[in-house]
Design goal:
alpha/beta; three-stranded antiparallel beta sheet
Length: 171
């Protein structure tokens, strides 16, 4: 198995929403870009919702996310995995990213959205208990944008993902 390392977060001080994946897939790691697989629905969905579509250069997509108060990161800092599937992650190898420090630097984040079940499960198991006051955020799992998650159409995924543009007040 290969030891993998995730990317730095994409965020600035305006961030109010954080979208978390688990660990970048093989193509994303090769390209050094979040959601680089051409069949992943992430960028087409974000294109529909905030204008950060795949037609834009990668750096421009990231700027659009930031301008819309959206931060992007992965739960895992490192892990071992063969291939790209979340199901292939060796759970004994997981090291989570430092979310306590992240939330200190990004105090306006009120909503955390998980791109799929593995991201949510890893966050709840490896991160949540160590967050203290930062744990009192709104958490919601969204359907995975991965091409491996074919149970929903892209239109159904888009409908579910619309919540990131108008998250409900926390309270």
């Amino acid at each position: 198995m290969h030891q993998l390392h995730s990317f730095s977060p994409i965020a600035d001080v305006r961030a109010r929403v954080l979208i978390l994946g688990s660990m970048p897939g093989k193509l994303s790691l090769q390209a050094q870009q979040y959601y680089a697989h051409p069949r992943n629905a992430f960028w087409p969905i974000l294109g529909e919702l905030v204008g950060a579509g795949p037609h834009l250069p990668y750096a421009a997509r990231l700027q659009v996310l930031k301008a819309n108060g959206i931060a992007l990161w992965d739960v895992l800092k490192s892990c071992t995995r063969e291939g790209s599937l979340d199901s292939a992650i060796d759970d004994t190898s997981i090291i989570a990213n430092d979310f306590a420090s992240f939330h200190r630097v990004h105090p306006n984040i009120t909503h955390v959205f998980f791109n799929g079940a593995k991201a949510e499960a890893c966050y709840r198991k490896h991160v949540l208990l160590g967050l203290g006051a930062a744990a009192r955020l709104h958490y919601q799992r969204l359907p995975s944008t991965s091409p491996a998650h074919a149970a929903l159409s892209q239109v159904q995924k888009l409908t579910a993902w619309e919540i990131i543009t108008q998250p409900a007040p926390v309270g």
